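Thread: quick sanity check before group meeting

JM: Hey all, I'm pulling together slides for Thursday and realized we never actually wrote out the predicted structure for the chain we discussed last week. Dropping the sequence here so it's in one place. If anyone has concerns about the input, flag it before I start.
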Amino acid sequence: MHDVQKTDSLQDPANLARPAPPGGFAPRYTANVTKRILIVDDERTVVEMLTEFFKQFQHGHAYEVAVARDGADATIVLLRGKYDLIVLDMHMPRMSGLELLRQIRGLGVKIPVIMITGNQDVRAAAEALSGGVFAYVPKPFDFKHLDHLVALALETPQPAAGDKPAS
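JM (edit): ok, ran it. Output follows.
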């Protein structure tokens, strides 16, 4: 099941880029860019809560949210579109978040991933972090912290596929 839910993608006309008037300088405006987020979680209440949460973010751009109910569905969704961030549950049926993370990284996809989980397993957290997640967030969420992590993840330049991170 693939739900694509758009959230507040309308742009404020005052933010749109405008040409400078002839012979003069004009203030610089930037376009309100829509960021595409993929939420992968099998718990409907978590998906609804995160979708609502993305409507509230104030990072200077709108969010378009797509939803996958497990790792197998997420694989199909990722093959069909480009996303700026994945919010990924660790424990799901059919394909776990860790399995999906390994698959994504194995394909050379460098999308930032925020791993979420209700399980406080330190070994799983270490595996997620060594697998290249941007952040690991336990449930229940501290929404201020999650807001901060999303902003950081979207601001951090990601290396192109095949690039090795600087060491």
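AS: nice. Confidence is low (pLDDT under 50) at residues 1-31, 161-167. The chain has one domain: 2-8+26-155.
JM: adding both to the slides.
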